[in-house]
Amino acid sequence: MTQKSLLSPMPPLDGCAVKLLEDALNRSSSKTLLLEMDKALYLLSREGHWFKFSLLTKKRTIKKATIFQTLTDLYNQAVHGQKWRITTNSLS
Prior knowledge:
The chain has two helices and five strands, in the order H-E-E-E-E-H-E. The chain is α+β, with helices and mostly antiparallel strands and 92 residues long.
């Protein structure tokens, strides 16, 4: 018996949160967002057609980065279930 698995995009686990991130990223003049999750800072940025999600150190340099194809993938895999907020602090 052969089982076929179809790869299809997963729907967002929280569509309103994904829309909030998308709108904030589009409105940002630098096309980046700072997110705070569990007392850690993350940088969300657009890299061409992809989204880069980077864990920042205390000095706000990139410690670890992951690339996602869509904001839905990013939200479902990295943000959903975490307490998070968009911070107003700048990177400078």
